[in-house]
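new request in #modeling-help
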Amino acid sequence: MDKPFAITLDVGTSLANKTGSWRVDRPVYVDRMPPCNDGCPAGENIQGWLYYVEEGDYEQAWRRLVEDNPMPAIMGRVCYHPCETACNRAKLDEAVGINAVERFLGDQAIEHGWSFGFVAPPSEKKVLVIGSGPAGLSAAYHLRRLGHAVTIYEAGWALGGMMRFGIPKYRLPREVLDAEIRRICALGVEVELGHKVTDVPEEMRAGGFDAVFMAVGAQLGKRAYLPAGDSAHVIDAVSLLHSMEGFDPPSLGRRVAIYGGGDTAMDAARTAKRLGATDAVVVYRRTRERMPAHDIEVEEAVEEGVLMKWLSTIADVDFDKGRIVIEKMALDETGFPQPTGEFEELDADCVVLALGQESDLSLLASMPEVVVVDGSVQVGPDLMTGRSGVFAGGDVLPVDRTVTTAVGNGKKAARAIDAWLRGESLAKPVRHELAGFELLNTWYYSDAPRMERPRLEVARRTSTFDEIVQGLDETNALFEARRCMSCGNCFECDNCFGVCPDNAVVNLGFGNRYRFEYDYCKGCGICVSECPCGAIVMEPELA
Amino acid sequence: MTATQKVKFYQVGSFAVGNRLLDADQRTVQSDVSRHNTITSGHRACQGCGEALGARYVLDAAMRVTGGKLVAVNATGCLEVFTTPYPESSWQLPWVHSLFGNAAAVATGVAAALKAQGRDDIRVLAQAGDGGTVDIGFGCLSGMFERNDDVLFVCYDNQAYMNTGVQRSGATPAAARTATTEAVGPEPGNPFGQGKDMAALAMAHGIGYVATATVSDLHDLEAKVERAMDFHGARYLHVLVPCPLGWGSNSADTIRVARLATESGLFPVYEAEYGTVTAASPIRHRVPVEDYLRLQRRFRHLFDSSGAVKRPDIVAKLQQLANRNIDRFGLLTNEVA
Amino acid sequence: MLRQLEGSRAVAMAVAACRPQVVCAYPITPQTHIVEGVGEMVKSGELAGCEFINVESEFAAMSVAIGASAAGSRAYTATSSQGLLFMIEAVYNAGGLGLPVVMTLANRAIGAPINIWNDHSDAMAVRDAGWVMLFAESNQEATDLHIQAFRLAEDLSLPVMVNMDGFVLTHATERIDVPTQEQVDAFLPPFEPRQVLDPADPVTIGALVGPEAFTEVRFLAHAKQIQAIGHIREVADEFAEAFGRRAGGLVNTYRAEDADVVVVALGSILGTIKDVADQMRERGTKVGVVGITSFRPFPLDALHEAIGDARRVVVIERAFSIGFGGVLSTDVALAIADGRARISTVVAGLGGRAVPEAAIAGVIEDAVAGRLEALRFVDLDRGVVERELARMAGDRHSGPSAENVLRDLRAVASRSV
């Protein structure tokens, strides 16, 4: 075509005009720390594995998850999900059901028989793990995958620690527990049951261990002074729950009083009901708001007919008459309960004490360097005690006493031990800025209410130890995972690619995210505003 | 209800540009790496220009649905000026600019020529700003509608004559400050009781397809372009495109402001066929009009320095206009995903 | 093919034979019969492959033609006077973009006051818009010029305006040799656009051009029109050979070679002037006539040559530049700027007033006798104007002049009855 001068132009000739020179600020892609990851005591990359669930690639999601936590089927049943408490979605509608999805993945793995992947080549080092609760099993798993030879010495007659002997079956079916423990052992972990350790240095010498991880937990129930003392009608909750694993269920009587306000008290009360108690009454010296038990435990207990007696302490017991005497308390200005002098009688055939747990630290006898304060072992940031090569984690430490925290301790300790064995110190991972809710543009997320896991009806629940909470089916798990907003990390929604008026975002193709074409970007900032997950920031343009 | 199928359950549903979890045919044209980029980089629009964005949205969708057989006729205005300063053109399709008021008539001529040549598989799109549509362009536009010429006319409405320095047009909303309706005196900004409802005027001509849209709902906009191309004869698309310069909004807020315009009810989004409304986009999360007004310096005179409303009388009248739209188009249903 | 028909109708048939693909029309007296004629031929199928569009204004008419031409179709429209002014923005636009649109301008006076009869003030309003402007002397020439116009427009990639006097030509019924379709097809090949809107080869037409290139664009347009001078002559010669009669060209002279006084004019008045010239020649005055056919590009050299050694030049024009004087005569003066001849402007026939032979003879005689002033209005009613001037001087609220004059004329007329 013979184009008239200046009047008619060739197409696309504007590309010669590099409008990037107009900028005073430039957009930059960032990765931020999602609050779920930030809040997980086990350090899971929750957003990372949810990403694969969203695509329906459950196995890949599971593999991502078990990079950090080898026991998702258990977590999905017992974890108190601080991730969900932190979840930004809660500020939009409801938190993503991370826990439910984790359980789904764990159950899928068991159903399909997925096994753990890669184990590093042998390191020629041997590590002893004392205790096979969540901390010990987690440490064993991570150490084994790092290539070390691992042996677990477990004092009891089965592996699992409080997962088996403290958490009731209706919350954690034993088939699930056994499957996940088996899978860890299948990596080549050596196990010795019934082997109680009393002298750590001696065991290390005898076994040729290069390092040791002490994860003996807190398995001794605290006892309070009650007038009827060692009567057979007073038992501690820990022992009660422990004995549920045996072959003779204990007999508690028709009316059971549970003394204490923590999760163990709830477990004990609900177990009592299942064992046939007509009344299970929790006696707690403070109020509901001040109970240490998690809300969900209390709610379920109440649903099952457990009664609560707040602001009460046990003053006297008279089991011949089948009753106990409780004294009413009142909270003073500091929130501390004070006796009021008013008494009440309560029918009770026995009392279950759930007043807290302590660790059996007899194994520290020959290690004076290991410091203990208030019954808890003191450790450095790398979980090493005062004695070199001796590490500790889980309920023996002054930490939150949850399975997830213990699992997290086990991972951290394993990595610290691994570094120590190589003569290095553990590198601190780079911590990105937290992806707060205000950084998101939540308009783009569909309105999607949370999927709740179905539960057994109350009547059925209290007559059996069947698992109460059912899992999500695949459709629902997928839906739930897709409610994740991917806070702080690009999930390739193409918004930035689409909203740039200057066509200055290059789409690098699925899996490769995007790049800014700074030759043309005018720095308007629409991409930042319209990024749903807050993965773009504006920075000042340098000279 | 609307032409798009709202997708539930997916992470960002039908609101974001794309989504790796959606099938390709449920993603927008904009999410496609091979989109035409009918307006390419290097144009001279201001940072954050809503019209540049809206025009690329419309034209890329039109190019997709017509298989690239498209001719564009452009009126004088910002869009024409910032895309064709000699020697640079950012257009990537056959394009002609004649005058300010005749885009519709020139398009009629192009369509007639293509028909006479037996090439009316090539579609014609005319585009103008609000001035070139409702004021100086109105005569030619009305004639094109009345004859039902086979042209899709798109108005990019930034509600004033922006290219010449922000002067009032027949599309300027009430109370808005422009250079010819300054925010001074007892009745600051553009007077109430004026203005043309261009979409209604288009509907009154009885043409096959009329729709309104904004740059904040891309799926909806693309679906409407596609739907418009199903029809032959005169069609009209009215797209709200915020202008950071003229509206006094932050350049990063362009899409956000358009979103608030619809969510407040001030700009109803709907479609009509042969003069009857067939669908309206429901408001998802309703906001009071001040949330929209507060982001724009052209309405600054309604607020004090702390952001509190200082002219509740004017804001109330604007709220009434929004309420009327909501009633008229039924914009509040149960909030839909 | 000889026919007895109205001038408008003949033009319509010639236009139709040129196979336009888009014709757009807005009614305005006195061109309307032309587009009505084309419209009927389209509707009946006689003119096939043509889209006839009833537009809503003249501005739309020219705009439609612009769009059609840019899209690669042969486009045509027609207008007059007020309509031309209504589309003037688009007229300049077509000129600037170099689109080969052909338009008939049925010359009519421009208001206010509104007047539907013939003069050339409309053509003069657009003489700088970059169009080729041809003036027909007769209906035969008008018919023939349209065929040449399409050819010129497409060869040069310029719009071409064919001027023909409203009513005088458009509504006159006479014997005209209307070219056949075969003749026109042989003369006018299919349209091959220089620039076109085509998805297969997209371009951007109508860019914003700043100070750095605008002058060059304008110069190129001017250079193209200067080049056109030669081409107009060639096309006229080719037409003469193909159709066996002369039409078009730059100027046409009548008995001017040895003339002492040359009368120059545009359009149909030339017929009357030639009759007067014959009569005056018989009485001994060497009168010559030069008709300008191509008004733009203005044929300075051809005109200079045609005027030759004549001592007096009388430009009779049907237009007037208020506050200055003649329009055509200013252009003619440039052709004889070497100063040997004396030039007078004679304004005649404004607003459709008849120009009798006697009046023409009178001014020629005055010119020969040296009595012709630089600017003369033929047949001006001095009484009426002097009364009105006196009224305006005396009374601030004297009212609109036009109304006063009309009242006067009626009063005078009624008194004389």
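bot summary: Chain A touches chain C through eleven residues (CB under 8 Å).
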